[in-house]
Design goal:
183 residues, five-stranded antiparallel beta sheet, globular
């Protein structure tokens, strides 16, 4: 039984960190933690400050749009369309939305939304859970290697904003600046 549990956990770990086993998403992402600071020339103005703890994913998305990011479409993740099957689970996100950035040019799959079109916003009960999720995804994607692509992660308290690595670092820095305005 212990062997079955370990194998189940390992399989769940790989699929949860990479979008529920969708190989298209897994191969479109890997780790790239952006550490470049946003410069005034490359970043849009920060979103109005709203307490991150009181924010859900839809409110955070509205703040990113208000900051001038070209978010064209979005889908709220629910228990019925969460391909990771994590929403509301202990230690996992309590609210999530997937979004499309016009510069990526990939629409959101309404039936199985993922990060391919731009990214996602995951909101947790606390900052420790958000950090643990970010670390887990980045470690998992790094193990997958270069074929998996890249992904940027930006944290603000209990909010994790995941942005596709299809965007160049200078453009992703706009998300970094906007997420900093969420706190």
């Amino acid at each position: 039984m212990r062997k079955t549990i370990i194998m189940t956990i390992a399989a769940a770990a790989l699929t949860a960190g990479c979008g529920g086993g969708d190989s298209a998403e897994a191969t479109a992402q890997a780790t790239e933690s952006s550490t470049s600071a946003a410069t005034p020339d490359s970043a849009t103005a920060a979103a109005p400050s709203i307490t991150a703890q009181a924010m859900d994913a839809e409110t955070a998305l509205a703040a990113l749009r208000d900051a001038g990011l070209p978010i064209t479409d979005s889908v709220v993740i629910t228990e019925t369309n969460d391909r990771n099957n994590l929403i509301g689970r202990p230690g996992q996100y309590v609210s999530k939305v997937a979004f499309a950035d016009s510069r990526v040019g990939v629409p959101i799959d309404q039936a199985e939304p993922g990060n391919e079109g731009g990214g996602s916003i995951e909101v947790f009960a606390d900052g420790a859970d958000a950090q643990a999720r970010s670390d887990y995804i980045q470690e998992t994607l790094q193990r997958l290697g270069p074929i998996a692509g890249t992904e940027y992660h930006y944290l603000s308290g209990s909010i994790l904003v995941r942005v596709t690595g299809e965007l160049p670092p200078s453009v992703a820095a706009e998300y970094e600046a906007a997420v900093a305005g969420l706190s």
